[in-house]
Amino acid sequence: MFYDMHVHSKFSTDSTLDMETAVLKAIELGLSGIAFTDHLDVDFTDYEDEFHYDFNDYFMLLNSLKDKYSKTIDIISAVEIGLQPHVIEETSQLIDGFTFDYVIGSTHLIKHRDPYCGKYFRPDDIKIQSYNEYLEELFNNLKLFDAFNFNTMGHLDYIVRYANFDDSAFYYNDHSALLDEIFKYIISKDISFEINTSTYLKQPLDKKLLTRYKELGGELITLGSDAHNLDRIAKNFKLYSQIIKDCGFKYLFSFKDGKPIAHKI
Ligand SMILES: [Zn+2]
Ligand SMILES: [Zn+2]
User: What domains, with CATH codes, occur in the chain?
Assistant: First the structure.
């Protein structure tokens, strides 16, 4: 069955989810694997608490759960790195010496503006322009952080979660040239395309994103719930795996030691 490749535990500043409770829930749901992708987000505007944590504590707990549940479920070490142009050096120093199975590169802030806190969109914003600005920032960040060798590009359409337009959905056709560049870039770097089901709780996924990624030669799709609590683990995975299959993909991927592993849908 499925791998949920994007779950937060209490090591994330914005989650209180106990790791073992999450593992037991994943087993109950019949998942084959779960990746704990806690936030490393340096200089996160508006938060007093820093979005980073002690990796030694993380690995100690994760490895003990791996030992305990290895016959039942695959537990994957992972980190979701928050990308901003000025935090490359500090992020690199914090992560130095630690090896994760899976690394997500995500853009949460756009020139210090945080959409989650309502600080990104302005009342007179035009949807296509504001989404485009997000995509440009995301693409620029991916290139700046090239040396990090990400395994996936986190939530490409993250920005729609906090938008409030008449139609806030994110359409491939509105950004086709830039999205083609992004897709070609990630394909050339073996960076997977994350389908993050949390985003689609609010707006539907434009299937053209998937079909265009495939047309350009993309195969690596990961499925993540971005759960910060128990109820969200593997949310809507049956629905979105079927959509991915209908778009012509035969496999979903998990990662181990930074290498993709195919699982038939
Ligand atoms: Zn994220
Ligand atoms: Zn996340």
Answer: 3-264 (3.20.20.140)
